[in-house]
Amino acid sequence: MSKFSWIVFKKEIIDIFRDKKTIITSIILPIVIFPIIALAMGGGMKDSFDPSIPSPIAIVGGENELTEHINSIENLEIIDTDEPEKLLEELDVHAYLVIPENFDEMIENSEIQEIEVHYDPSSQKSGLAFSKIKDVIETMKIEKTKQKLDELNIDSKILDLVPVKPVEIEKDNGGIGMMMMSMILPMLIAIYAAVGGIPAAVDLGAGEKERQTLEPLLTTNASRNALIMGKYFAVVVAGILGTIASLLGFSLASIISPEFYGQAAGLPILNVLLMGVFALLICGVFSALELLVSFYARNFKEAQTYLTPFTFIVLIPAYFTMFLDGKLIPEIYIHIPILNTISILKELLIGVINIPHILMVFGWGVVYVAIALFLVNKMIHKEKVVFRN
Amino acid sequence: MIELKELTKQFKEIKAVDSLSFNVKKGEILGLLGENGAGKTTTLRLLATMLKPTSGTAIIDGCDLVKDSNLVRSKIGILFGGETGLYDRLTAYENIAYFGELNGMSKTEIKNRIDKLAKLLDMEEYINRRVGKFSKGMKQKVAIARSIVHNPEIMFLDEPTSGLDVSAVKVVHDFIIELKKEGKTIVFSSHSMKEVEKLCERVAIIHKGKLQVQDSLINLKEKYPENDLEEIFLKKVGGNNE
Questions:
Q1: What is the pLDDT of residues B130-161, one digit of tens each?
Q2: Do A219 and B50 touch (CB under 8 A)?
Q3: Are residues A373 and A263 in the same domain?
Q4: Does residue A148 sit in the same domain as residue A287?
Q5: Per-residue pLDDT for A374 more than 90?
Q6: How many domains does chain A have?
Q7: Is residue A167 part of a domain?
Q8: Quick check: is A105 in a domain?
Q9: The listed CATH number (3.40.50.300, 1.10.10.60, 3.40.50.2000, 3.40.47.10) that belongs to domain B2-238
Q10: What confidence tens digit (pLDDT) does each residue in A142-176 have?
Q11: In the β-sheet with A95-98, what is the strand arrangement from edge to edge?
């Protein structure tokens, strides 16, 4: 960085950090938004999916062995009612069973009986109650069958002649949390690295025009290239801070709701560092492009309008790769801008170090940064752009 | 000190500045007069190296405008428009110091110069406050200090009083008179005849990018004894106003 670029960079960083609007949108918001989502989703999920919370159910049919058995289960609460259907509609009970009157007798006589379980499939709570009831009936069914087989002197193992033993290739792959994280985190890093610098870019380009500070700047000893490079590095720093803030928010969210967001703590440091490098590259490209658009705009408002699509430019490939398996990245993705960075982040996140992929995406990243910087430097010399207002 | 040689600037089909040639002597204030769109701002932007001439050039303190634009920039200061163009989140000191640094001054030089300017422009009370909530007059003083922090020999002032209230206008006028006392060379554009009469020794009247007349106020009044400057201006511009 030249002497004059450094002077501009220092001034812009001070200016950015004194701008409450930028601090709120680029730093505070990303830190708090994910924990809030985690709290909201965590609360809702706990309520809907926690099997330890008793599900209210009703039973139609007299006293029998199954009713007694259900009564002894802690996570099912039997509600006494004559209108189970109505209660289910209002979800005052989450499910109800219809057990035949002479159930015990029929079981004793080995007569096959159906038990109706009424539930609302559109309700998660009702679905959970149904699963619990089904588990209870299954357990009872197995016990009863075993008893019958014992009475007939038949080994009950006959019921499970070909048992299936699931063996996972990795002992701890993080389960659903890791899957969610590999879906969300690369997208998040790419989006924040790309758009985190927008508020700063708007202020540093179009803001100079609107404040009428650009003209005096252009008559100082600093060359236009030095001015633009100082501003460019300031936008990159703002973008990186935004990315760090969003990752901090994500980390807080994964502490609040680890079962949903997963944990990245186990990632090797090399993978984390490489992820940082790729985030920096994407930030480097977008910072230059945002500055370019911002300088082209006549004023603040115009710059904000022009820069809005940038979020979608990143969102589209981000969604495209959301369900992509990190271990099966198609080769062509490595050569497509943005898509390649998200793909490599996905690989790194699940612990894959694919050297050819890393080198290629890094190479492309450097090329994109160089092109973007060339364009922004070219643009600052264009009178039509600089004096467009 | 300043000599324009057939200076021309063309934007697509429009010649904003058309073969403009005039000169400004060392230590004088030249009033650049013209209607809106006459080419005053473009001329000053060219002289301040913000725009590149389509053809022609100017020699500023011995430096060619086209070939030595970096050198030219180190010799000039600008104050463009009534809007002050300051960074609201920086203090007055920081605003001025930023431009001092960008003009290659050392930290000590900047401090000494700002101390002097703060005293001169009566800004000591608020020099370390952020400029966001300053009055127009206070902002104008900061903008003035910023434009001369590097003590340039030549100043380009483009309608520096437009949109300002009476007290802010006085600040600018006093500043220009002070510059004159210091022997600075000034090109001052305005469409206020009274302002020009008050501050300038010579005027250049331009219309549609072309020079109509360049002469001292005394000579003009001798040539047109029955008219004031406003009438002289209208006579020079009006005849070509098609």
A1: 999 888 888 888 988 998 899 899 999 888 88
A2: yes
A3: yes
A4: no
A5: yes
A6: 2
A7: no
A8: yes
A9: 3.40.50.300
A10: 888 888 888 888 887 777 778 788 776 655 555 55
A11: A76-78, A55-60, A95-98, A116-119
Are A43 and A49 contacting, i.e. CB atoms less than 8 angstroms apart?
A: no
Length of chain A, in residues: 389
Closest approach of chain A CAs to the CA of B231, in angstroms? Answer: 33
Closest in A19, A221, A223 to B104, CB measured: A221
Residues in chain A with CB shorter than 8 Å from the CB of B90 are 11, 14-15, 18
> Distance between CA atoms of A353 and A337, rounded to whole angstroms?
20
**Tell me: the pLDDT tens digits for A18-52?**
988 888 888 888 888 878 877 776 666 666 666 77
Q: Are B96 and B142 in contact (CB under 8 A)?
A: yes
Annotated domain spans of chain B = 2-238
> Which chain B residue has the Cα nearest residue A21?
B89
What is the distance, to the nearest Å, from the Cα of residue A209 to the centroid of all Cα atoms in its chain? 38
A217/B102 CB distance under 8 A: yes
Residue A121's domain is classified under what CATH number?
3.40.1710.10
Regarding whether A243 and A198 lie in a shared domain, the answer is: yes
Distance CA A91, CA A111 (A): 33
pLDDT at residue A230 is higher than 90: yes
**Where do the DSSP E strands lie in B47-121?**
55-60, 63-64, 76-80
Record the tokens describing residue B94, joined without a space.
Answer: 């920081």
Query: How many other β-carbons are positioned within 10 Å of the β-carbon of residue A266?
Result: 10
In chain A, which residues have their Cβ closer than 8 Å to the Cβ of B51? 383, 387
Last residue of a domain, one of A100, A131, A160: A160
- Asked whether the beta carbons of residue B146 and residue A222 sit closer than 8 angstroms, the reply is no
The answer on A109 and A37 residing in a single domain is: no
Which residue in chain B has the smallest CA separation from A10? B98
For A128, the domain range is: 53-160
Mutation target for B interface from A4, A16, A219: give the one with most B CBs within 10 A: A219
Are A213 and B45 an interchain contact pair (Cβ–Cβ within 8 Å)? no
Q: What is the pLDDT of residues A4-26, one digit of tens each?
A: 999 999 999 999 989 888 888 88
Instruction: Judge if A152 and A185 occupy the same domain.
Output: no
Q: Kindly state the tokens that stand for A153.
A: 């002197």
Q: Check CB contact of A212 with chain B, cutoff 8 Å.
A: yes
A73, with CB counted inside 10 A (0-12, 13-18, 19+), is middle
Asked if A219 lies within 8 A of B78 by C-beta distance, the reply is yes
